[in-house]
Design a protein that fits this description.
Aminopeptidase; single chain; alpha+beta; eight-stranded mixed beta sheet; Alpha-Beta Plaits; 19 strands
């Protein structure tokens, strides 16, 4: 027998699926709108700090679309000649407010020869829509916008107040976004935030069938990124030197390698004094949800990258705890000396490395910068220039927050029989730390392959559009019921 609360929960679950299927059917009315709006946005090159005109035109277009859908919208300048924040709000007097965060800047398109069609023209082939920004993050914005339109049309009135925050520098470190968030914190206040979209990827033409597990992401790691460069004379020669003089010429490449080797050992232990003391022990509630994870991620990762095993043979709980709740340090790039074909016998006069830390709560960009400088000083390494690049502090919403629980309930019902895993902190980074003081955060959806988000031929599968619109509509509707 079920008690009253259990019966209410059973009824709620049945309603979630029923409403999702209803909205899935209704969403077909907005397919043409999706293509039209996304085509308009994709045509604007919006690489931050490069495409000033494209950024401006895209921001104007976003503001115009928000206004045409009934939102009070305006642009908030951040810094001179930099991308504005486009903000939209529809206050219907509801008790609950749902916030959508998206970004309209994109990754550089790279070599056009590697694209099968123009990165700045929406192109359909093989069941996908191609173009820069289609899946990261212009396409997701259009889905969010149309989901609220569907809900409004279906119910006659939105059941929640809706806010949109659209920034134009996410792919470049969101350097100027704090100018907006610190000046206008009231615009971020909400009962939940859909972060860069809630997207569902079905299997084939059956829009109710899913073959990959669902996920709920409750936070993002920090990204502290440094460019480490050897200094000029008198530390190293003014130019490359014949390697016959290697026995008595300071070698910038070797010196940089030796300096980097002091940061981490072969067991992935970070060796910077004071660093590990700042790492907070994982919460038991986070460990509990990670214990539910399967091995799909690691198996797919090994298959995708053609690996027999992962670093240190990590697997299962150890892998997932490390990935979500422990910091990491990576050398992202190295540059020194001769890089051409054949041989050139020299002692390099210059060397540079790009290094990034992925950090968890209590470790910040400023703290790591300070510790890194102290570490090199302690080791007598005075021949390096350390440049801190724009980065992000960590962000986290409790895995037991009501908004996260709501997303979990909805995702489990829609994606059944696939499991839904909760990820306390994703290994990626973003400006979520600017929002979590004002709202709960959750990214919901399931996995898909072949999206090429930061690569040539970026795309969004056509079959994900309608279920994703319906998914967002259900999240908004049931947030109003909480």
């Amino acid at each position: 027998m079920f008690n009253k609360n259990e019966l209410l929960q059973i009824g709620l679950i049945e309603m979630i699926k029923k409403d999702f299927l209803k909205y899935l059917k209704s969403a077909s009315k907005y397919k043409d709108d999706f293509r039209k709006i996304l085509a308009e946005l994709v045509k604007f090159p919006t690489v931050a700090y490069r495409d000033t005109e494209g950024i401006s035109d895209c921001a104007n277009s976003l503001e115009s679309y928000l206004k045409s859908y009934g939102y009070d919208a305006k642009q908030y300048p951040t810094a001179e000649d930099q991308a504005p924040v486009v903000y939209g709000e529809k206050n219907v007097g509801a008790k609950k407010t749902l916030l959508f965060y998206h970004h309209y800047d994109v990754q550089p398109e790279g070599n056009h020869d590697l694209w099968d069609s123009s990165p700045w023209e929406l192109t359909e082939r093989d069941g996908r829509l191609y173009g820069r920004g289609t899946c990261d993050d212009k396409g997701e914005f259009v889905i969010s916008l149309l989901a609220m339109k569907l809900l409004e049309d279906s119910l006659g009135k939105l059941p929640v107040n809706v806010k949109f925050v659209l920034e134009g520098e996410e792919e470049a470190g969101s350097e100027n976004l704090p100018k907006f968030t610190t000046k206008h914190p009231e615009l971020l206040k909400s009962d939940g935030c859909v972060w860069e979209g809630a997207i569902l990827f079905p299997e084939g033409d059956d829009l109710e069938k899913y073959v990959t597990p669902g996920y709920l992401v409750c936070g993002l790691k920090e990204n502290a990124y440094f460019e480490i460069t050897t200094k000029d004379p008198p530390f190293f020669p003014r130019t490359d030197v014949h390697s016959g003089s290697a026995a008595f010429t300071p070698n910038a490449a070797w010196s940089l390698v030796w300096a980097l080797s002091t940061l981490k050992d072969s067991k992935e232990n970070i060796l910077i004094d004071g660093f590990n003391e700042l790492v907070i022990e994982p919460l038991e509630e986070d460990i509990e949800v990670i214990r539910e994870h399967g091995t799909e991620f690691e198996e797919n990762f090994k298959k995708d990258y053609e690996l027999d095993s992962l670093l240190l043979n990590r697997t299962g709980l150890d892998l997932n705890v490390t990935l979500s709740l422990k910091p990491s340090l990576s050398i992202c790039g190295l540059k020194s000396g001769f890089q051409g074909e054949g041989s050139k016998t020299i002692v390099p006069a210059k060397a540079m490395a790009k290094v990034d830390f992925r950090l968890v709560p209590n470790l910040t960009v400023e703290k790591v910068h300070e510790l890194l400088l102290k570490h090199f000083a302690k080791h007598g390494i005075d021949y390096l220039d350390i440049k801190l690049m724009p980065g992000y502090d960590p962000a986290k919403t409790s895995v037991n927050h009501p908004y996260v629980k709501l997303n979990r309930k909805i995702a489990k019902e829609i994606l059944a029989p696939q499991p839904v895993y909760t990820i306390p902190i994703a290994y990626g980074s973003g400006p979520a730390y600017l929002f979590t003081e004002h709202t709960a955060l959750c990214m919901a959806g399931n996995d898909a392959s072949g999206l090429n988000g930061h690569a040539p031929n970026e795309n969004i599968p056509i079959n994900c559009i309608l279920p994703s619109i319906a998914f967002n509509a259900v999240i908004a509707q049931y947030l109003a019921k909480e």
